[in-house]
Write a structure and sequence with these properties.
By secondary structure, the chain is α/β, with parallel strands linked by helices. It contains seven helices and ten strands. Bound molecules: NADP nicotinamide-adenine-dinucleotide phosphate.
């Protein structure tokens, strides 16, 4: 499949290595535009390309891999999100290390808020729970497969994303919908962070 990334930094690069190794193609996009990704393209090979955010959003599955604080900028773009499978890999943080200041979500889950921002998108929350240095490691370890949690309200979209996770060597574990699953896998929750293997 073709996977588009909005954001081309640590998270996007870490998971793209698995996608490319598993025969998928990837389209990276960022804020500064495709020319700024030339060095990355030479490192990632012919199945990787750089494009505008709008073009990356045309891929079979789109991964949100940009800062939480930048998500609203997507609403200014000329993108029709309806029907698109969108992986929300973001963590709702206002700042990163060392203070990791969390956004006020008003009691909702971060992915429910993302779903409201991108009307019609079929949101699947995943890829957010592991530090990128763990994510980029071979998911086959100690005779098991690294667990990747996911949640979402669209069962078909979750199946597609689960199949992609499996194809890249991870063990997908479905936590339910965005409200209940999202709550236990988003930043600060019990399932955000643990590096688990399914044996
Ligand atoms: N790093 C991790 O270990 C990790 C783990 C789990 C989840 N996450 C989450 O994954 C997301 C990505 O994290 P990250 O550490 O890879 O990088 P990041 O520092 O959060 O994001 C940087 C990337 O986002 C792009 N970007 C910024 N604003 C944008 C905009 N308005 N439109 C399009 N692209 C934009 C940047 O492009 P430019 O360079 O052009 O500005 C750059 O490619 C975050 O939400 C983070 O919380 C990260």
């Amino acid at each position: 499949m073709k996977i588009g990334f909005v954001g081309a930094a640590y998270l996007a690069q870490a998971y793209s290595k698995h996608l490319l190794r598993s025969g998928h193609s990837v389209v990276f996009s960022n804020r500064r535009g495709p020319e700024s990704l030339a060095n990355l393209m030479s490192a990632f090979g012919t199945q990787a390309s750089a494009a505008s955010v709008e073009a990356a959003a045309e891929a079979d599955v789109v991964v949100l891999a940009l800062p939480w604080t930048q998500l609203r900028s997507l609403q200014q773009r000329n993108i029709d999100w309806s029907g698109r499978i969108v992986v929300d890999a973001t963590n709702a943080l206002l700042s990163y290390a060392p203070d990791f200041r969390r956004a006020d979500l008003g009691g909702r889950t971060s992915s429910e808020i993302v779903a409201d921002m991108l009307p019609g998108a079929r949101i699947v929350k995943t890829l957010n729970t592991l530090y990128y240095k763990v994510l980029e490691r071979d998911p086959a370890e100690a005779g098991g497969r690294r667990v990747m949690f996911l949640s979402g309200d669209d069962e078909k979209a979750k199946k597609v994303v689960s199949a992609i996770l499996s194809s890249t060597g991870f063990c997908p574990v479905d936590l339910g919908g965005l409200a209940e699953g999202g709550r236990i896998q988003q930043f600060g929750a019990p399932l955000a962070g643990p590096n688990l293997l399914a044996l």
